[in-house]
Every structure is written in structure tokens, then in C-alpha cells.
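Could you help me review a protein record that somebody else here produced? This is what I was given.
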Amino acid sequence: MESEKFQELMLAQFAQMNQRFDHMDQRFDHTDFKLAKIEIMQEKMGKNIQLIAEGLASHREQNDRQYNELKEFIGIKTNLLESVVRNSNVVVKEKSGIK
């Protein structure tokens, strides 16, 4: 009789342990699923970050190129204006008789 009760008690405890293990397995499966989703998102973010970095580098190169073009253009226009001013001064001096 006691051995039957002991056996029933042991079977009940084993059943309870199996339920806990099943629950733990479900939690691990759910955690694995979430981890897989996070890994996929992380890969996408890494690719997006790479694209952004490439875009920034491209914009920087374009800005540098345009800055140099604008600097050259301003230099040319400044030289032209300086020449015009010098020539205007010479013409004014010649017309006014100033040497």
C-alpha cells in the first residue's frame, strides 16, 4: 500500500516535472524565435548603416569638389574684377592727367 502511494507520488512528481520541462521548452523556443528576429534586424541595420556611411562619403566628396570649383570660380572672378579696377584707375588717371 505504501509502495503504491509512493509510486503514485513519484509519478505525479515526474508528471509535474515533465510539465515544467515542457513549459521551459516553450519558453526557450519563444526566446530562440525572438533572438532570430533580433539577429535579422541587426543584419538589416548593419546594411543600412553601411549604406548611410557610403552616402555620407559620397556627399562629402561632392561637397569638396563643389567647394573647390566654387573657390576656383571666385578666384577667376576676383582676378577679373581686380584687372577691371586697375584698368579703370589707369583710364581715370590718363583722362585726369594724374601720373
Notes: The helical segments are 2-96. The CA atoms of residues 90 and 99 lie 9 Å apart.
